[in-house]
Amino acid sequence: MNTTDIIHIIGTAAFAVSGYLVGVRKRLDLLGVLIVALLTAIGGGMMRDVLVGRVPLVFTQHSAIITIALTLVAAWLFKLQNQRGKTLAASFLLADSLGLVAFTITGAQVGLMYDLNLFGVVMLGFVTAVGGGIVRDTLVNDIPMILRKDFYGTVSVIIGLALYLLDAAGWVNLFTLNILLWGGYALRLWAHRVAWRLPRF
Q1: For 52-59, which contacts have Cβ atoms below 8 Å and span 24 or more sequence positions?
Q2: What is the pLDDT of residues 1-55, one digit of tens each?
Q3: What is the spatial distance between Cα 88 and Cα 105, in angstroms, rounded to a whole number?
Q4: pTM score > 0.90 for this model?
Q5: Which residues cross the membrane (predicted)?
Q6: Which of 71, 80, 163, 193 is the most buried (most CB within 10 A)?
Q7: 79 by DSSP, 3-state: which?
């Protein structure tokens, strides 16, 4: 298992948790929570794969489904569904931010694998990162976070651009990928803490 596979598993688990927490917050039934968690975790990857003209990996590989199943069982055992208020919001922020960063990296790497240009690499990373969240928020009748949240999609764009430049310099390796993952995660959390945001009209 290589670094990309590990990052993909991290992103899948993180987004499964974020979908699970949204389902709990919206008081959905068991099937509703499962659907929201599943589509949050695989939605962006499916959009990415359609864009590059390949069968979505979730239809040919079992790792994502196994990861989602184990994550949801763990979330239930640790009683995340019993969280309320600020604790629930904090858990969602941590999970969703990690999923955003991890899926940006894996999506951008697909763009590099297909020899796309800068725009293509950044866009694939962006779509992979925010696609599942858009599906999740639409399902529960919320405005997607990408359209309303402070410094959210911008983090994805920065990471995708950084990965493209690292690849152009021949510096993509275990060390730099970890820096992108955890550095991007810290950036997203810090931006939320200090309420960074782009100018509004």
Answers
A1: 52/110, 52/111, 52/114, 52/124
A2: 788 899 999 999 999 999 999 999 999 999 999 999 999 999 999 999 999 999 9
A3: 26
A4: yes
A5: 6-23, 30-47, 59-78, 90-112, 118-139, 151-166
A6: 163
A7: coil
